[in-house]
Amino acid sequence: MERPEGWADEAKLDETTRLDLYRKQSAIRQFEQRAYDLFLQNLVKGTSHLSLGQEAVAAGFGAAMRYDDFSFCTYRGHAHTLVRGASMTGLMAELLGRSNGILAGKGGSMHLTSTEHYAMGSYAIVGAHLPIAAGAAWAAQERGTGQVAVCFFGDGTTNIGAFHEAINLATVWKLPVVFVCENNLYMEYTPISSVTAVEHPAAQRAAAYGLEPLIVDGNDVDEVYGIATTYIERARAGEGPALIEAKTYRKGGHSRADPAKYRPPEEVESWLARDPIDLYRARLLELGFEAAVLDDIDAQVLVEVNRATEEAKAAPPPSKDLIYTDVWADGGSQWRN
After folding, report:
1. Cβ-proximal residues to 80 (8 Å cutoff; 6+ apart), any chain
2. Adjacent-strand bridge partners of 178
3. Which residue in 94, 130, 211, 305 has a CA-CA distance of 20 to 30 Å to 285?
4. Distance (Å, whole) CA 211 – CA 206
5. How do residues 273-295 score in pLDDT, each as one tens digit?
6. Burial readout 319-334 (b: 16 or more C-beta within 10 A, e: otherwise)
7. Using 50, 70 and 90 to split pLDDT, how confident is the model at 255?
8. 10-336: CATH homologous superfamily?
């Protein structure tokens, strides 16, 4: 596709924005790597789905969103919740099932939510959150708040009915919502190309709903930030929804239980050579940023990750008296008895 008019030019990105994009990617990478290490130590409760290799998508959109824009994501949602400003300790503790987690240890890896940061949840049911994101956008439209809903999902979701229903309704009502397909080429263990009639499962279906076929390099955070800024602001201005396909790749398997042996070695090697953080660091150095500044950011993030890890490990599991809370809207179940 051609670069659309208004798409932010990477040359216009100022120093502060570029360093923020680097920091966000570094925070995601180091947090996810630590989560992987803790999983191997049997400290993460249940499974986990990591964004190692996909950092640029969450970082680029996170930097482009207004503080009160809504974000909705999948079970691979650590990164999207982190970039909205949620506590790193709270996220780490939630993965470990500890009482100081952002959901008091009751939600775990696949159900991260921080409404105070407008991170409106991770959804384990494939496609379930797209209509909810459309609903949040509708509410914002009716209230005139100027908020935009940004909804992230995997390539496999494009074959789910809720994908088509949500995008159709969003277009008909010109809702302020941006749908973002993180196409990492695999729907769990199955190549998306083997079960989908078109090469680009999101972009090539956009025209059916009157939308532009938008594809972005999901491993280039400048490109992601540019397209995110453009279409979020277009949605905010009342120009309706967008459907963006970000081509990216996960470093490991679908989840921690998946060794990913089904992926061709040459494919893996090719994508790993395009690591988003390595690419961005090299670009910043070419632009004149000092290596010491980038190293300092990485070191600061490591301190934060270490602190979050120790604070999470030191906390107890949630007490049994929390079992019946957060189940119904009034906070408890006693009214039913």
Report:
1. 58, 61, 62, 71, 73, 119, 122, 152
2. 150, 242
3. 305
4. 5
5. 999 999 999 999 999 999 999 99
6. eeeeeeeeeeeeeeee
7. confident
8. Thiamin diphosphate (ThDP)-binding fold, Pyr/PP domains (3.40.50.970)
What pLDDT is attached to residue 253? 82
Q: Are strands 119-123 and 149-154 parallel, antiparallel or unpaired?
A: unpaired
Indicate the domain borders of the chain.
10-336
Q: Are 235 and 148 in contact (CB under 8 A)?
A: yes
What's this model's pTM, rounded to 2 decimal places? 0.93
Cα(333)–Cα(73) distance, integer angstroms: 28
Q: Which residue has the tokens 């090539």?
A: 204
Tokens standing for residue 68 = 């009160």
Write the pLDDT tens digit of every residue in 126-135. 999 999 999 9
Residue 5: the pLDDT is 47
**Rg over CA atoms, the chain:** 20
Residue with tokens 């789905």: 49
Q: Distance between CA 252 and CA 37 in Å, rounded?
A: 13
CB 128 within 8 A of CB 49: no
Helix ranges restricted to H, the chain:
15-40, 55-64, 78-82, 88-95, 129-143, 161-172, 221-236, 265-272, 276-286, 291-314
Residue 151: phi, psi to the nearest 5? -120, 120
List CB contacts of 195: < 8 A, sequence separation 6 or more. Answer: 159, 187
Closest residue by Cα to residue 85 from 106, 68, 98, 109: 68
d(CA 259, CA 262) in angstroms, rounded, equals 8
